[in-house]
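Weekly modeling sync, notes
Attendees: S.R. (lead), two postdocs, one rotation student

Agenda item 3: backlog of single-chain predictions. S.R. asked that every request posted to the team notebook include the full sequence so nobody has to chase files. The rotation student volunteered to paste the first one in as an example of the format we agreed on. Action items at the bottom.

Example entry:
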Amino acid sequence: MSPDDKRVAELLEKLKKRFAEAESAPAQPARTRGEAAPKPAQKPRGAAEEKVAPAQRNRRHWVVVSYDIPSDRRRTKVMKTLEGFGHRVQYSVFESELRPADLEKLKARLAGLILPEQDDVRFYLLCENCQGKVTMLGRAQMHRQKAYEIVAGTPGDK
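Predicted structure, as returned to the notebook:
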């Protein structure tokens, strides 16, 4: 059985299980016209809310992403997704400078591409001090994203 066939079989089993759970769950009472929908569950009082200062929202974090994915198809999709966010530094390792929102987008996209029971994707966030302590041997280079670039010249110069 191919990995894709296994995935289809696993998804069918999950759907059957969810359908059986839904059938055995107590029925919700019907609402009459104009009756308000039930309110969503709210956080308990005193629950900590994540507050991020505006300066922190745009601050970029140095992220190293590594992956080990046995399926060629999924590995290629993960690699192409990562190329949109950073630089490949080894066969299955990427480096990126990402804002927190972009890091969450990347995690969400990759989560939709992998099979958690078979694949492994890791995110290592490095602080500013740690970035300066990275040691490389051989032909390795640190890829830093430029905040801006000044191009000198006059129109028409090549």
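Discussion: group reviewed the output briefly. Residues 55-131 form a domain with the Alpha-Beta Plaits fold (CATH 3.30.70.240).
Action items: rotation student to repeat for the remaining queue; S.R. to check formatting next week.
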